[in-house]
Backbone:
């Protein structure tokens, strides 16, 4: 029998008995960042492929969500800071070894790009919109004729942003549940899947919905594969990793993880999308909403559960 | 120069004087602490062993908190002491998440705080507060690069361990066992 106690009576808020420094702000931001990355990736990709006409929701309308998602996400990140007035210190330096520094700079680049992209389609969405100032009109003209540059920037930055939301967590070797390199690709794929779901929700074109739905189905399969892989990796790992896997395999996060993330967030929407492929009438809104909710809950669980896992000595 | 600490678990009685001395010396806010004492009990009566450890920031050689800090607030000072520059810290919590020893906390003023090895005392040639008050003299503070220092001598002659070396942090607090 082994028992360890603090004889000096340590009980620091949010650290004892187990770490809980990151609350709802971080998973909210990870979700919104992944969502934005997913939408921008598809918008850029299909624009580069010359599908602007066939895929209007993907290229034009869904990207209107992105500036809002990014600003809300950044605001959530700001709320997470405890020394708020010093936030600008992030932008006085570049720390290559710190994923958070990378993320801050990528956001600095992708947020303006997403604003410009959405703004360049604003007059198509609202025909009576007037930019008023000549400089804005000239800028719009320049953007419209050079959209291909923005599309490439979006595709590249979106992949970095999507992977970074996972690497942010996986770089912490002190948290065994996060400390797996598959978390980067897993969060990227999950973010793209939520992005695809958001596109489906904004689309009115049946053919477009079908294409994005198929892509989404593929992403769900890859995501399930990555999650299986992650748990297998933990089960073949050291004691701290076994403890991390146990949180989902009988531990306190078992029900929330399997019911809300795996079944309702991945398997059920996948089944609905397969049924749709075979021509059954399925309200396509349903799987899309489930995927968005599942993605959000997944990040919440990962952030909460990861903070509980720790080294034992 | 490489500052480190050796703590004799056979001499420690768990009085927590080191904790109080630190709180007083460093104006640690009430309810927080930069060092703490743990008691690990192994076995069942009558075959029981107890290990008492005074724990704190390990001032790791490969400090994950310094690596993940997005602003450079967490940094190495001379002698490998890991410090936080309060005016650079944004309070993001990344370093708290990255520490396998849970040695850092969020100060009520917003920045992240932790053991400094009492660098203000060390620079004057004094021992850290915790070391200086220990009634059983179970702690040794010194420079590992100085072959004549007490800490080098004690580490040469005693068995010792560090905490969670498998975390890859190369901790610099050694427990004599």
Residues:
């Amino acid at each position: 029998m082994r028992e360890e106690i603090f004889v000096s009576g340590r009980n620091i808020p949010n650290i004892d008995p187990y770490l809980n420094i990151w609350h709802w702000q971080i998973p909210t931001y990870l979700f919104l960042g992944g969502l934005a990355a997913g939408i921008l990736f598809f918008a850029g990709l299909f624009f580069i492929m010359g599908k602007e006409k066939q895929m209007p929701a993907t290229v034009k309308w869904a990207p209107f969500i992105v500036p809002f998602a990014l600003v809300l996400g950044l605001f959530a990140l700001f709320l997470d800071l405890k020394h708020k007035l010093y936030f600008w210190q992030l932008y006085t330096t570049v720390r290559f070894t710190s994923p958070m520094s990378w993320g801050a700079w990528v956001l600095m680049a992708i947020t303006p790009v997403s604003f410009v992209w959405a703004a360049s389609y604003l007059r198509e969405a609202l025909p009576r919109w007037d930019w008023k100032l000549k400089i804005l009109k000239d800028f719009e003209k320049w953007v419209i004729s050079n959209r291909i540059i923005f599309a490439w920037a979006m595709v590249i930055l979106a992949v970095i942003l999507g992977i970074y939301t996972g690497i942010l967590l996986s770089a912490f070797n002190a948290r065994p549940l996060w400390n797996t390199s598959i978390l980067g690709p897993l969060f990227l794929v999950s973010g793209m899947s939520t992005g695809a779901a958001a596109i489906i929700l904004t689309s009115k074109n049946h053919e477009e919905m079908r294409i994005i739905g198929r892509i989404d189905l593929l992403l769900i399969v890859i995501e399930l594969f990555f999650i299986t892989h992650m748990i297998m990796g933990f089960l073949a790992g050291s004691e701290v990793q076994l403890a991390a896997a146990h949180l989902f395999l009988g531990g306190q996060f078992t029900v929330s993880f399997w019911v809300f993330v795996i079944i309702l967030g991945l398997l059920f929407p996948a089944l609905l999308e397969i049924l749709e492929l075979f021509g059954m009438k399925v309200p396509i809104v349903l799987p899309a909403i489930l995927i968005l909710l599942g993605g959000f809950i997944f990040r919440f669980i990962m952030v909460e559960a990861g903070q509980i896992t720790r080294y034992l000595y | 120069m490489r500052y480190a600490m050796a703590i004799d678990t056979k001499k420690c009685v768990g009085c927590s004087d080191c904790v109080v001395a630190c709180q007083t010396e460093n104006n640690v806010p009430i309810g927080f602490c930069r060092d703490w004492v743990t008691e690990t009990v192994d076995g069942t009566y009558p075959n029981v062993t107890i290990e008492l450890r005074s724990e704190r920031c390990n001032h790791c050689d490969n400090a994950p908190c310094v690596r993940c800090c997005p602003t450079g607030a967490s940094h190495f000072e001379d002698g490998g002491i890991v410090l936080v520059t309060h005016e650079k810290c944004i309070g993001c919590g990344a370093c708290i998440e990255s520490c396998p020893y849970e040695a850092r906390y969020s100060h009520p003023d917003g920045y992240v705080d932790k053991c400094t090895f009492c660098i203000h005392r060390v620079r004057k040639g004094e021992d850290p507060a915790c070391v200086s008050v220990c009634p059983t003299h179970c702690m040794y503070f010194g420079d590992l690069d100085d072959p004549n220092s007490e800490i080098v001598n004690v580490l040469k002659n005693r068995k010792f361990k560090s905490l969670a070396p498998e975390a890859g942090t190369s901790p610099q607090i050694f427990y004599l066992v």
